[in-house]
Amino acid sequence: MKLIKNLQPQNLHSKTDSELVFDYKQSLNTEIIGEIYERYHHIVFGVALKYLKDTELAQDALLDVFNNLFEQLAKYKIDEFKSWLLTVTRNHSLRLLKENAKSAPLEYANNKDLTINFMENEHKIDLLNEKEKQIIQMEEALTKLKPEQKLCVSLFYLDDKTYQEIADETGFSIKKVKSYIQNGKRNMQILMTKVD
Predict the structure, then answer these.
(1) pLDDT, mean of each 10-residue run, the chain (196 residues)
(2) What is the pTM (predicted TM-score) of this model?
(3) What is the set of domains in the chain, with CATH numbers?
(4) CA angle 20-12-50, nearest 5°?
(5) Distance CA 105, CA 116 (A)
(6) What are phi and psi for residue 84, nearest 5 degrees?
(7) What count of Cα atoms within 13 Å lies in the side-chain half-sphere of residue 148?
């Protein structure tokens, strides 16, 4: 049996996802799963809710995904943790949808409305998959920007701050803020087209 290291919560907060995964493989310390839960439970719940369209089912999926992490993190090699976690959540949600469809009463099986509804849901799922992929690409591109561009783009697009608010917060001139946002946006688009 592996020795569980006594990690302080503040030490966990400062670690990257990759470091947490590595530490968990070494120590099997359950506090690490707790830290991962704190970072990602809202995203996992959101992805599950997009697919399942039901709060209770999404909550169950959230718990299932994190319960399975204890075994999966120890078992698999994971390079990009966040992308991997979102894929696991999506696959689990789709599996639940299929199970629910199979358990539907037989009298509904030939119902035209249900068939059309299922096809519409399939289309929505494809669109969500594409949107999820774009969000992941955007997040990855954002991390590759110069620090000033990353900061200004994040504050402008993610935090909905004005040019003036960003200038006040960062100490950059408004002209610099506009330039960082414009160049950052252009660089992100270039990075994202390279991924495709």
Answers:
(1) 44 85 89 90 90 89 91 85 89 84 50 50 61 72 87 84 92 94 89 69
(2) 0.50
(3) 1-105 (1.10.1740.10), 130-196 (1.10.10.10)
(4) 65
(5) 17
(6) -60, -45
(7) 13
